[in-house]
Design goal:
Helix content of chain A: 25-40%
Shape of chain A: globular
Number of helices of chain A: 11
Order of helices and strands of chain A: HEEEHEEEHHHHHHEHHEEH
Pfam families (chains A, B): WHD_NrtR
Radius of gyration of chain A: 23 Å
InterPro entries (chains A, B): NMN_biosyn (IPR011213), NUDIX_hydrolase-like_dom_sf (IPR015797), WH-like_DNA-bd_sf (IPR036388), WH_DNA-bd_sf (IPR036390), WHD_NrtR (IPR054105)
Largest sheet of chain A: 6 strands, mixed
Number of strands of chain A: 9
Oligomer: homodimer
Distance between the termini of chain A: 47 Å
Chain lengths: ~350, ~350
DNA sequence: CCGTGTAATGCTCGTTTGGAGTATAAGTGA
DNA sequence: TCACTTATACTCCAAACGAGCATTACACGG
């Protein structure tokens, strides 16, 4: 990547628009700037442009339905939706948004770039593919319907990530012993120690569980050869029968290419984000009870939250306001209905919304 | 929890999690995976490959020399180094690393992807360019020498970001009045209010200064038309005379295209990162005193730190170990020399290195 | 040799957060 | 009516944090 050109640094002049990596939410500003920029004249282009590559977008679209965090999948739930990068749009972000909304009729409340990958030969031959992945949040009842897409709980792909009812048995029953075996199967005691160290710290064998290490855990399992995708790659030839791959007990459902890794990246990002940015509301219906909100957060974080503290936090931050109505769904004292105070998005530049996650 | 944009809370430690798609530090895992993936056979390229585009990499290379945070620039300090994306390397990250090390002879201790941009019309006609930006940290005495590259304090580009000796006068003397004028120059009182609200919160007129909002501040100034680059874009034709652009007092040195924006992204990312990940050490020499370390952090954060608390934090986290030697450079009691305990990188999967930033 | 300047260090304090627990109120359904 | 479920109001406590005071150690200049 990056070429060898001795001293060259391109003197390109065209200006690059693009939505803010920070705000995620596309602002008027961005649009504005983009329009202006595209009207500009590029003064001095003469730069050797890199050789052509192909680019496409991959989306991790998340929603939470009845306490279950879901992700939109295609191809028999083995792939994330993706599409070619088109020039038609002002920015990739708006392009992604338009594309998703057209395909699924779901409004995307929030879009954020995740990561850009470059694989050698994917599409064959000389051409290289660049994949730019995005995380998008949408409301409930996805009603995707249309084509071959379907929503699926992301814990189907990462069974070890759901700690809402305590640590999943699969960790101790399957992962722990296999990771230990992997660690011990090393050339040196040093490597064995390091391996075990990593396993213990990412899975919390020796400390508290950290729900944000989704990607690290996946990568560790991959490296340890416990992930079907890894075996497939190792083989160097066609993947084994999908059914067989899925059959690898306890390791979760496999996906094509590195889609599962991208999904892990998205989950990790989202779990981190909800702690300091009020994005959860993008996943909630217009009005909701505090318990519903809490359940949503718990679904994402994969762990429980202390109810009283959760409420204290939400209230003291004035994130929501009462609608005046109440809901008496789940038998029990009726709960007040709330609505997200969108004003806070403007009020505070960036702030931390915190999540009280139980230690127990 | 939750949320979307702002929720306030005290400027205490606000530890911001991070969109770290991975650890940033390239691990064996990554290499491994990439090799495997490239050997893999794509089962069903579910995706039509997009039309060819050009791609290049842009680097924000940072170092801290004698209390000054520097960035590597080219073209008379008006551009960030960049180069075409080539297929020669296993990954973009390793490509970037190799390229930089070859060009500058600087070892990159840490590399992290920042953001990927896509422009319409840049290289002319049909072809579109994708720019993938990276943040790289390197040791002191950059000794770039070689070609037209030079290190430059990043506060030359963002004069309002250095609060180490208190808020820079430029904020109250220049920015505040101009932003107020911009806010008032709106169609509606509502817009005026929103504009002022944003200005006040990002620049801390009505609350504490938040050093992480580098990008938001830059974008705000851009939107307000106070940034030379914006005028240039607005003009719709060739940029004005560079000297004239730089002359815009108080607004910092301009750069080509949106390089300054990318730099802002890098600074913001770094300021956030040092609070929960021990990356500062990548900028330090092999051995150092705690005061030097503190100065480095202060240079990056653009604000002072409480010395005693800083030490307490560093020690209790066992990030460093004594070398046994002392340094008696700056007249005063000789300071013990320390060395970073690299083991911690392996010990803890991710942990928080916290920084005690003074409120005063 | 003493006084002064500059840092390094050690310790204390009071406040703020954040995790947890207890108690009580207010509905539904059997 | 009771049994059950959830909403809500408070209280406690300990760790984390921001700040300040006091003391120790050197270099240097008279």
């Amino acid at each position: 990547m990056i070429g060898s050109p001795p001293i060259c640094f391109n003197a390109r002049t065209a200006i690059r628009p693009e939505p803010s990596p920070a705000s995620g939410v596309e602002r008027k500003t961005d649009m504005l700037r983009e329009r202006q920029l595209s009207a500009r004249i590029a003064p001095t282009p003469p730069v050797q442009i890199g050789r052509p590559v192909a680019a496409d977008l991959i989306a991790v679209l998340a929603a939470v339905t009845s306490g279950d965090p879901r992700v939109l999948t295609i191809q028999d739930q083995r792939a994330l939706p993706s599409g070619p990068f088109e020039l038609a749009h002002r920015s990739m972000q708006s392009g992604l948004r338009a594309w998703v909304e057209r395909q699924t009729r779901l409004p995307l409340g929030y879009v954020e770039q995740l990561y850009t990958f470059a694989d050698k030969d994917r599409g064959g031959g000389e051409q290289r593919v660049i994949s730019i992945s995005y995380l998008g949040l949408t409301r409930e009842q996805p009603a995707s319907g249309e084509f071959e897409a379907s929503w699926r709980s992301w814990y189907a792909y990462f069974p070890w990530e759901d700690h809402r009812v305590g640590p999943p048995p699969v960790i101790e029953d399957v992962l722990l012993p296999r990771l230990r075996a992997w660690a011990e199967d090393s050339f040196s005691a040093r490597i064995a120690h390091d391996r075990w160290q990593r396993a213990a710290s990412t899975f919390g064998f020796d400390r508290a569980w950290n729900e944000e290490l989704v990607l690290q855990r996946y990568e560790l399992l991959y490296e340890a050869g416990l992930i079907p995708e890894a075996e497939r790659d190792d083989a160097g030839d066609a993947p084994r029968d999908p059914a067989a791959i899925d059959a690898v007990s306890g390791m979760g459902r496999a996906m094509i290419l590195d889609h599962r890794r991208i999904l892990a990246t998205g989950i990790a990002r989202l779990r981190a984000k909800i702690k300091y940015h009020p994005v959860v509301f993008e996943l909630m219906p217009e009005t909701f009870t505090l318990l519903q909100l809490q359940r949503c957060v718990e679904a994402l974080a994969g762990r429980l939250v202390h109810k009283q503290n959760f409420r204290r936090l939400i209230e003291q931050q004035e994130l929501v306001e009462e609608t005046g109505e109440t809901s008496q769904d789940t038998g029990g004292r009726p709960a007040k209905l709330f609505r997200f105070r969108r004003e806070v998005l403007a009020e505070r530049a960036i702030f931390g919304t915190k999540l009280p996650i139980s230690r127990a």
